[in-house]
Design a protein that fits this description.
By secondary structure, this protein is α/β, with parallel strands linked by helices. It contains ten helices and nine strands. Strand 8 and strand 9 form a beta hairpin. The protein is elongated and about 80 Å long. The N terminus is likely disordered.
Length: about 350
């Protein structure tokens, strides 16, 4: 199922882990074994599908109502994700009411086929969680297994209308006239509006807590959204929140904000080791400062070997900092001169 955010926590950049594909087959096997032992029909299984959709919608909706969204593309935008939540709510209620079973069956196949593809993409990308259930971390391989299992079960248990002879052409057998009174359709729409409108308002009314140009926190939330795209040519706003901020105010620095458990951060820092060695003998190069974002590494393992020249600092832990990590900024005299990637400094 679609994710709200590429992350499982407000500290962003959730650690990416490598999961093996056998977990996908394990999930499929267990799910199908349980269902075969119960022996459900389509009428019973659609309730399971509806429950999955409503649970996913509820958890994602809560996350969107209480947390910022970092996505910059369409699929990660807040409005698109709100649309996904509203669709899951509507389709879940629709399946509960059992309206147009054959059409609903076909729509569910397409829906969970798309969900499975999205989860597989996240699994192959190494994401730690699919984001299908909001902040509840779910291994993308398991999520893909669940989605594919639902697809297989829908194929195994089609609606009874599709299993009986029809007087129409086989090509149109899956199309049917409404078998329920119009008040059933109105009831589904009413319940969806009753739940969906307040949910949409809550999800869309969330206001980010950010940093001003002077470094002051604007907003009352505990999660502070970092917006480096707005920092260029201005004073680096995090200087007052870094324990070695006074040292960074003078001279040129390449500042890397990272999470200790983020493989992408570790990879970027490793690539900067040669740059740090060069900058130690060339005063024209900025010095390297590695700033750890909370939660900190309790083991205290340094991000680079001791023979690599760099300084290490900590970002204050009384706030949750929300940003794509690693966040790399070049500053000169406290002013941001470039928001960049490690590739420019290898």
């Amino acid at each position: 199922m679609f994710a709200t955010s590429p992350k499982t926590s407000p500290n962003t950049s959730a650690p990416k882990r490598k999961y093996s594909a056998p977990r996908l087959s394990i999930t499929l096997t267990c799910f199908l074994t349980v269902l075969r032992s119960i022996g459900p029909s389509y009428d019973a299984f659609r309730l399971v599908v509806a429950a999955v959709l409503l649970l996913a919608a509820g958890l994602k909706g809560y996350q969107l109502s209480t947390e910022p969204v970092l996505g910059t593309g369409l699929l990660d935008s807040r409005w698109f994700l709100i649309g996904v939540v509203e669709f899951e709510l509507f389709f879940g209620f629709w399946l509960l009411a059992n309206l147009l079973p054959s059409v609903s069956w076909a729509a569910a196949l397409a829906c969970f086929g798309i969900f499975a593809g999205t989860s597989l993409y996240k699994a192959m990308s190494g994401d730690a969680s699919c984001g299908c259930f909001g902040r509840l971390p779910v291994n993308p391989w398991y999520a893909a297994g669940l989605d594919l299992a639902i697809v297989l079960c829908l194929l195994y248990w089609p609606p009874p209308q599709m299993c009986s002879p029809a007087s129409t052409s086989p090509a149109f057998r899956w199309i049917e006239l409404p078998s329920r009174p119009s008040r059933y359709f109105g009831g589904v729409a009413a319940v969806w509006l009753l739940v969906g409108i307040p949910a949409a308002f809550a999800m869309s009314s969330y206001t980010n807590t950010t940093l001003s140009d002077t470094g002051k926190i604007v907003g009352t939330g505990d999660i502070v959204v970092l917006e480096p795209a707005t920092w260029l040519g201005k004073r680096f706003p995090l200087l007052d929140y870094i324990d070695i901020g006074a040292d960074l105010k003078e001279g040129r620095w390449l500042i890397v904000l990272y999470h200790h458990d983020c493989p992408k951060c570790r990879q970027a820092i490793g690539k900067l080791a040669k740059f740090a060695s060069r900058s130690a003998v060339n005063s024209a190069e900025p010095r390297l400062a590695l700033i750890e974002m909370p939660p900190y590494d309790e083991a205290g393992v340094p991000p680079l070997p001791p023979d690599v020249p760099f300084v290490h600092g900590l970002l204050r832990k009384d706030k949750q900092w929300f940003a794509h990590a690693p966040l790399i900024e070049e500053i000169s005299g406290s002013v941001v001169v470039q928001t960049t990637t490690d590739a420019l400094y290898q």
